[in-house]
Amino acid sequence: MAFPDILDARALRQGIDGFVDQLVIDYADSLERLSQPLLDFLVFVEQLLRNSPWYLVIAVLATIAWYGSRRWTLSAGVILLMLFIGVIGQWDRGMQTLALMIVSLVMCLTIGIPAGVLMSLSERFRKVLLPILDVMQTMPSFVYLIPVVMLFGLGKVPALIATVVYAVPPLIRLTDLGIRLVDHSIMEAATAFGATKRQKLLGVQLPLALPNIMAGINQTTMMALSMVVVASMIGARGLGQEVLAGINRLEVGRGLLAGLAIVALAIMFDRVTQAYGKRLQYPKQGDK
Question: Which of 40, 168, 183, 237 has its Cβ near the most Cβ atoms within 10 Å?
Answer without folding.
Answer: 168
